[in-house]
Amino acid sequence: MADINAENTGSRAPLTSAGSHAEPEAAGDAVPPALVSFMELFYFAYRNFTSDPDAILERYGFGRAHHRVLHFVHRNPGLKVAELLDVLKITKQSLARVLKELREKGFITQRPGPDDLRERRLYLTPKGVRLTDKLTELQVRRIAGALREAGSQADEVTRRFLLAMIEPQERDQVASLVRWSGTAITEP
């Protein structure tokens, strides 16, 4: 594996699918540095947003996939496994591994659907609820602090920005999953 901390080779052209470096595009096609800065801020914000929950999850041998499952099942008790696959955009194999670990450690239960016994519905156990509430509390505290620091218009601007980051064809699905307290979700 290449050492990412090795000598700085300067500005390089992106790799092509064949693995060689492509020629840089014309100067007029350069990516605006301000947008690259936003991208980098997004990476750092996400790193910090996930750091506290990651530390807690690690104690259980869990990762971010476990966190996502716990979160969406907590917010949507009785969620079908098929629906969760669609929300998380992960493979059945990946979800099966995560669900197995969560079930075996007593954080989640799986029950047949009320009308179709072939359906698998997911519910958190009291232990799962406690863990998820703790993880949510940590992240909500970070978001609340950031919004407070960003100023009075931050809630609406942030909501619109985050919705705009989501693919247009996925926004309805996201709107059905996300509940804004007292505010309807609208297109950006």
Compact description:
With 188 residues, the chain is mainly α. It contains 7 helices and 3 strands.
How would you describe this structure to a colleague?
The chain is built from seven helices and three strands. A hairpin with a 7-residue loop joins strand 2 and strand 3 (120-124). The chain folds into two domains: 49-150, Arc Repressor Mutant, subunit A; 153-188, no CATH class. The protein is mainly alpha-helical. The relative contact order is 0.09. It has a three-stranded antiparallel β-sheet with strand order 1-3-2.
Compute the separation of the termini in Å. 42 Å
Question: Biggest sheet, in brief?
Answer: 3 strands, antiparallel
Mean pLDDT: 84
Question: How many domains in all?
Answer: 2
Beta content comes to: 5-15%
By DSSP, the count of extended strands is 3
Low-confidence stretches: 1-12, 182-188
CATH superfamily of the largest domain: Winged helix-like DNA-binding domain superfamily/Winged helix DNA-binding domain
Could you name the key traits of this structure?
2 domains; 188 residues; single chain; disordered N terminus; 3 strands; Arc Repressor Mutant, subunit A; globular; 7 helices; mainly alpha
